[in-house]
Amino acid sequence: MSDKDQKPQDQEVEQDVVGDQPAEQAEVEPQPEESGTQARVGELEAELEAAKARAEENWNEFLRARAELENVRRRMERDVAHARKYGVEKLAAELLAVRDSLEMGLSAAREANADVAKLTEGTELTLKMLSQAMEKFDIAEVHPLGQKFNPDEHEAMAMQPSAEHAPNTVIHVVQKGYKLSDRLLRPAMVVVSREAENQQGGEDDNKA
Known about the structure:
By secondary structure, the protein is an alpha+beta fold. The protein has a domain at 140-208: Nucleotide Exchange Factor Grpe, Chain A, domain 2 (Roll), CATH 2.30.22. The chain has helices at 3-24, 32-86, 89-109, 116-136, 197-207, and strands at 139-142, 154-162, 170-175, 177-180, 183-186, 188-195. The strands form 2 sheets. It has a 3-stranded antiparallel β-sheet with strand order 1-4-5. Strands 2-6-3 form a 3-stranded mixed β-sheet. The longest helix has 55 residues, at 32-86. Residues 13-19 have low confidence and may be disordered.
């Protein structure tokens, strides 16, 4: 067979090869597993974005709450400082009248012809004014004469035997105490009774 007879067959083979190439290079359709993975990734990305949005919102709320707390703290500090500085303003105003009365009484006492009766009356009036001012602000005196000794409100200066009083009875108030509402400002200085010696001896004799 000559070369001329073989060429047409070779051309047919080449045409078949070329014709088969488009079929081999066609795109592969995605498998079901790959589609499910891509969908899951999309869901996770959406959840991540939502979580980021919630986190940012919570952070902003935290910052606002912290700022508000700081403002409240500063207001409280100002109020406490103001209360410390001006808390006794009303009491001070009441005491001014008492001071004026005391100065007037002292001035009258220095006069050559001072009237003792008038000075006494003026002093009593001043003391009454002071008592009224203290009463307005719930300041009460502690005057426990005749009461049982209370170490929470009284301070014993001495103990004295007494046949007329039960032991641990306040028989003399050296200095009155004072309370502000339920808080003790100053304890009362007192003398407390104890059992008389003759009573102790009599009890010992009876026991004998």
